[in-house]
Amino acid sequence: MRKQILVVDDELSILKLLNFILSKDYDLVIKQNGADAISWLEDGNDPALIISDLEMPYIDGGSFIRNLKISGFYRDTPVILLSGADNLDNIVSSMPFQADCYFKKPFNPAELKSSILEALLYSDVKNN
After folding, report:
1. How far apart are CA 86 and CA 20, in angstroms?
2. Boundaries of each Response regulatory domain copy (predicted)?
């Protein structure tokens, strides 16, 4: 069965790229901001992994992921962060939660795919 990935990013070019490189292997649900993503999750959806941009309108990626991690239900859902911020290492290290990995835009698609596979495999082992 194909795994479902929630992709949250407000940049259309990034969404198109992620759709192109991931849709052959995964079912993608695409949301353009954290508020829409939270609404989708509150409807009872449970993705295998979440890819989120950090800088978005309405609810930024950091707040979105922090809310997920403290909710309890999505605490163990793997998270991959994307950002164009120059100081991404500092931003990630100061967050009150830990992402499974993060990538600075522009990112290497092969490295992202490898990190997704690794995060999903680790999550499957951890949850079984």
Report:
1. 26
2. 4-120
Tell me the helices (H) and strands (E) count for the chain, helix number first: 5, 5
In contact, 104 and 33? CB cutoff 8 Å = no
Q: Is the dihedral of CA 41, 90, 11, 60 positive or negative?
A: positive
Residue 81 burial (CB < 10 Å; 0-12/13-18/19+)? buried
Q: Give the predicted TM-score (pTM) of the model.
A: 0.90
| Fold for the domain defined by 4-127 | Rossmann fold (3.40.50)
Laid out side by side, the sheet with 49-53 consists of 27-31, 4-8, 49-53, 79-83, 101-104
Tell me: the pLDDT tens digits for 2-59? 999 999 999 999 999 999 999 999 999 999 998 899 999 999 999 999 999 988 878 8
